[in-house]
Design a protein that fits this description.
Blueprint (H helix, E strand, L loop, with lengths): L10 H16 L28 E2 L16 E5 L10 E5 L34 E5 L2 E2 L5 H7 L4 E6 L1 H15 L7 E4 L4 E6 L4 E7 L5 E2 L13 E3 L4 H4 L7 E4 L11 E4 L6 H4 E4 L1 H19 L6 E5 L38 H12 L5 E4 L2 H5 L5 E3 L3 E2 L2 E2 L2 H4 L2 H4 L1 E5 L4 H13 L3
Parallel strand pairs: 2-5, 6-9, 6-12, 11-13, 12-15, 15-16
Antiparallel strand pairs: 1-2, 3-4, 7-8, 8-9, 10-11, 13-14, 17-20, 18-19
Helix pairs in contact: 3-11, 6-7
GO cellular component, one term: membrane
Protein name: Transducin (Beta)-like 3
Keywords: Membrane, Signal-anchor, Transmembrane, Transmembrane helix
């Protein structure tokens, strides 16, 4: 297809990009019919490399004898108490074969089914994340199922968290006989059941975690949204009794506007709210969530995870492509170490790190932000849907307005997030 000439980064293009961001985010369906930078988080550093019992060999060899053809590897086997995964690099490995595709897994939304939607280049699936200090274990579906046997696993958050949930379901479902699995999609709550393992993998829609007037029936205009930043109970009652909780919240706070933040009843919402900047409102809301977790979660029975923010790639100038159109037509990751674009907010990262560090209940941070920052090539782009309909050929020829540089193709980046999640599950 012919793509209209690349546009300069002008005032008009910025306006179009902003409008497109709101269109992609705020016309989002709650689907049930179909389917850091190193200076922000202060984690415990990795142990010294002279710990011989931690040193391992990595015998993985790419078919072309590329960068994975190591004689030895002095990185450590992943240990959640010693190692982090946010520092590393993406290495192309053409021997990688995804555990599923968007045609073999029946549980994917069309929004993330890029190949099915016409994307021909699948090289974005061949990049492997290699942490500097640790070796991530390969995702093994049988082992993962055994770790969650007899348990409820629930992903809670927005559409990006829904993508992580769908990724996890697709990573394990192929090894389960058809009669031993079932999916029930709901407007707010969806449940994938594994009968043989007496387990469920669930998703609960709560884009802000705290209550808002745009939870179930989405209000397209962010100016009309009101967040009840002191209340989470409406959602949290559905989290009681879950064995493994995986939360996220970020992109819905990125309106670029003041956020109407309310204390008390929605009945007085028109008069009772205060307009706060996004990071201040986010901090208050996340503290409300943290207080609920500390008051209601028994850490001996429930493990809590929090997926850090998923970066957006709306501005190609961030990675030096001045003539580019958002993430459209990008085919390789960014190679600049610790690249940080305008689609990630360090104030939000700092708020998450500070609040979680003070919680009584241990929360494992799945720090996926920095590694995802590099992956400008793996978004849904024009191979997606909007408003419940696949993009038309005419819309695909206007990537400035229609390219989705928020959500990720599946299989893709969320599989790496789940590989990190899986590595942590092995220590449960």
């Amino acid at each position: 297809m012919g793509i209209r000439g690349k546009l300069p980064l002008s005032i008009m293009s910025i306006v179009f990009s902003s409008l497109a961001f709101f269109a992609l985010l705020y016309t989002e369906r709650i689907s049930y019919s179909s389917f850091s930078s190193g200076g922000v988080f202060r984690f415990k550093p990795c142990a010294k490399r002279n710990a011989a019992n931690k040193s391992v060999k990595d015998n993985r060899v790419a078919k072309n004898g590329s960068a994975l053809d190591y004689a030895a590897d002095d990185r450590f086997v992943f240990d959640p108490d010693e190692c982090t995964v946010n520092n590393g690099k993406w290495v192309f490995n053409n021997s990688i074969k995804p555990l599923y595709t968007d045609t073999t897994c029946p549980y994917l939304d069309r929004q993330v089914s890029c190949v099915k939607n016409g994307k021909l280049d699948t090289s974005y699936q061949q990049w492997e994340w290699l942490p500097d200090d640790c070796i991530l274990p390969r995702f093994d579906p049988i082992t993962a199922l055994k770790k969650i046997e007899g348990k409820r696993v629930m992903f809670v958050g927005d559409s990006l968290q829904r993508g992580q949930w769908q990724s996890f379901v697709c990573l394990v479902e192929s090894v389960v006989p058809q009669r031993q699995k079932s999916m029930k999609r709901g407007r707010m709550h969806s449940v994938f059941k594994l009968k043989e393992y007496n387990a469920t993998i669930e998703f609960y829609w709560a884009p802000f975690l705290v209550e808002s007037n745009s939870d179930e029936h989405i209000i397209a205009d962010p100016k009309q949204r009101i967040l009840k930043v002191d209340s989470v109970e409406k959602h949290a009652k559905h989290w009681i009794g879950v064995d493994i909780l995986v939360f996220n919240t970020y992109v819905w706070w990125m309106s670029g506007l003041k956020i109407k933040s309310l204390w008390g009843s929605f009945a007085n919402g028109e008069e009772g709210y205060e307009e706060l900047d996004a990071s201040s409102s986010y901090t208050i809301g996340l503290k409300t969530w943290a207080n609920w977790v500390d008051s209601n979660i028994n850490p001996n029975k429930t493990r809590v995870f929090f997926t850090t923010m998923s970066p957006t790639h709306q501005r190609s100038a961030d990675w030096g492509n001045e003539k580019g159109i958002k993430c459209f037509n990008e085919t390789k990751p960014i190679t600049k170490k610790r690249h940080w674009g305008t689609g990630s907010d360090k104030r939000i990262m700092s708020a998450v790190a500070g609040i979680v560090s003070r919680m009584k209940v241990p929360v494992t941070l799945l720090n996926i932000t920095q590694l995802s920052e590099y992956r400008i090539d793996a978004h849904s782009s024009i191979y997606t849907e909007m408003g419940g309909k696949l993009l038309t050929d005419e819309q695909k020829e206007d990537p400035l307005r229609y390219a989705d540089c928020i959500h990720w193709c599946l299989p893709g980046i969320p599989d790496t997030w789940n590989r990190i999640f899986y590595a942590n599950l092995l220590y449960l």
